[in-house]
TrEMBL record:
PROSITE patterns: JMJC (PS51184). This is JmjC domain-containing protein. Keywords: Signal. Residues 1-17 form the signal peptide. InterPro entries: Cupin_8, JmjC_dom. Residues 125-266 form the JmjC domain. The keyword Signal applies. It comes from the Eukaryota. SMART domains: JmjC (SM00558). The keyword Signal applies.
Amino acid sequence: MLSKVVTVICCLTYVAAEDPPSHLKPFGWGDSTPMEEVQGFLPVKQFFEEYVKPNKPVVMRGANKVWPGFLNWQTDEYFASVAPEEPFIVSMDIKRGTPETPTDFVDFKEFLQKYNTSARRMVEHTPPFLWKDVLVPGSLGCDKMWYGSSYSTSVVHKDAADNINCLVYGIKNYTILSPEYDPHVFLDRPDGLYSTMEVDKVDAHKYPGLDKVKFQHTELHGGDCVFIPYKWIHQVRSYDRNIAVNIWWNHWRNNELDLSNCPTETEEKVINSAKFHGWGDFESRDEGVFEHTHDLLSMAHVIKPVTYPRWVALFTSTTFDVSNLMRS
Ligand SMILES: *[C@@H]1O[C@H](CO)[C@@H](O)[C@H](O)[C@H]1NC(C)=O
Ligand SMILES: *[C@@H]1O[C@H](CO)[C@@H](O)[C@H](O)[C@H]1NC(C)=O
């Protein structure tokens, strides 16, 4: 009898001590296929019908080489020459770590002097003096600029919007995951839709579900853009001098767009002449608020699984009682 007990304890210990092959490997290690690719920006109608509406990611090779500022942005001297005389304050985030670290604020010219040796990068709305350099494909929304040097990593996260990231200089490696794998990825900070996992050394015991997912990946070079649909989990590694512009837009507007009159050629506008609704737009829409609440409660396992359309139907009904949906 005693020897049986000893055997069982021995074997349990043995199993627990064996690490899965992915243990302490970078996020994205394992089953991964290259993302779909096209050349340049697609005509707006085709882009929305084939990628945006079906929530399908796509790499657009060489798409931003047509930007008016593409060549100028290859050097720091250009940025220094167009920066205003008076201070222009930009925010600097740390290049590696979690978003909890407080942001620093510096003058843009000072940033240019110190970013090469800094542990921080600039994450800022594209400054107005650079708007003439950036083309917005079609009728898209909000923009932000990332500017940094050497290696940086992002946390594993999702954005509350559809997103195009255009790289002007450097290399970025993207690892993305379809929302169908959400149950296998533990975003332990659902408030910010991100995970505190150590992206270069993932603890496979803490995140065992990652063995069951199919990653997609791509390596972007200066000139390439990538479309990351709403809700796709992604993680980004940036190398060398790295300049990128993000364009986010509210996915709720996708269904309202009348694509029937879109030009068949790609139509692009510099930021100056594009109309932006700003971040307020994301929060001002009822759909956005409903969806955010739904995601928060379901990711925190507070409510029973419920489809989003059903959630909206319940929420807008006068007899809605959320306690019926709560997990006991
Ligand atoms: C920063 O590094 C880039 C090359 O990576 C170089 O072109 C630039 O002049 C450097 N800037 C400063 C202020 O040293
Ligand atoms: C980007 O990731 C691929 C594998 O997905 C790898 O082969 C490549 O070396 C990475 N690029 C850099 C610059 O590390």
